[in-house]
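Dissemination and training. As part of the outreach component of the grant, students in the summer workshop were shown how a complex can be specified as a set of sequence lines and then modelled as a single object. The example used during the hands-on session is reproduced here so that future cohorts can follow it. Participants entered these lines:
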Amino acid sequence: MRKLAHKLVLAAGAAAILGAGTIAVSAQQGDKLAIIKARQDFMEDQQHAVGQIQAFAKGTGDRQGAIDGVNKLLDLSSKMDAKFLAANFPTGTSATDFPDKTNTKPEFWQHLDSVQAAPAKLHDAELKLADIVKTGTPEEVGQAMTSTYRGSCNGLCHDSYRLPLKH
Amino acid sequence: MTQFRVRLLALLVLTASCGGVASARAADNAAIARGAYLATAADCTACHTDKKGGGQPFAGGRALPTPFGTFYGPNITPDPATGIGNWSAADFKRALREGKDDESKYRYPVFPFTSFTGMSDQDIADLYAYFMSLPPVNGRAHRNEVKFPFNWRFLLAGWRALFFTEGPLQPVAGQSEEWNRGRYLAEAVAHCEECHTPRNFLGGLDRSHAYAGNPHGPDGNEAPDITSDKKDGIGGWKLDDIIEVLRTGTTPDGDIVGKGMADVVDGTGKLADADRHALAVYIQSLPALPETPK
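and obtained this result:
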């Protein structure tokens, strides 16, 4: 009887540890999903700002909207320091870990030097874009926005570290 | 008087020949201009210019990795030693129409002759005129690094029998002139299928999934489904959305296309509005197909 009770206690203890472990893993997964969501919201803020600039280029928005957009881009890229990247792109949050939840390729974490150098280059490109947004024609602004996006957003990060998006 | 008549006759002949030369030069210039437009639409520079290595336009050297080995885009400037300077118009046409080089050897289909074969004789002649007008660039020739047994060029005879139909493209009856123009631009000139259609294990286009995307596209990059499938393709896009992505690379959600498609937009962005509209009309008409499985 004593042996049975002992076994039952051990079994209960194991179950409790496993259960706690499962809950802990779930909590970690939940935290990571929240982080993924937060960084996607950040990127969408950038996309919205790009949209304001593109609207002026297409003739559907005004120059003030474009200026607000580029200022927003400058503000956001200034926040993308090493601390931001570490907090928003922790290991274990790639598209391999969370398929269909994120488009960040595992290669992102294999090239952290390049990733960490990117925001400063992006910011510099956006400063040049800002000059054109302030005084350029809609066509010039459109070309500059496309060129900045291709050279910086795509060239520094998306082309190498982001899975193709479904549009 | 006789001397006067002779001089007058000589003057008339001279004037006529100058006029003839001027007309010929104008015709050459027109052909060169048309050829330049086609070379831009076909994005020839993407494969024939080593941009990463700082190469001259069309001087070759760009590496094109494939599952069959690494190929190098050749020099197509009119340099006689390393380019196509010694090629006749017939040689050039043979390359595009038949997929053979100036010695009638089979070209590997990494050169998309399977699409260019669809071009008209006039367009091929105009392309030739354009490339012959470029400054010759002496570039170091790169040997293709083709894996065994694909380096046995004679095997291409079998490949061609299975996967190559010689052109030119004929219009489809019952479709509008604009749709047919768009089809010609997509399939013969801009060769959209070469990236957006999956390939079988022998590298032939799997046309049963035409434009449904290629998970293993050029440079190993995925090329998306551009059929009218609403879930996997661009079936939810308006015509203006397709035109805009061809014009600036901007998708309806504000993203801007990258990698190989960015190079393509360098070409489609310079199309005449009518041509870009036609291309969009054709693309929008592509039958819906789910995305090629990865």
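The longest strand of chain B covers residues 63-66. Students were then asked to discuss how this feature might be tested experimentally.
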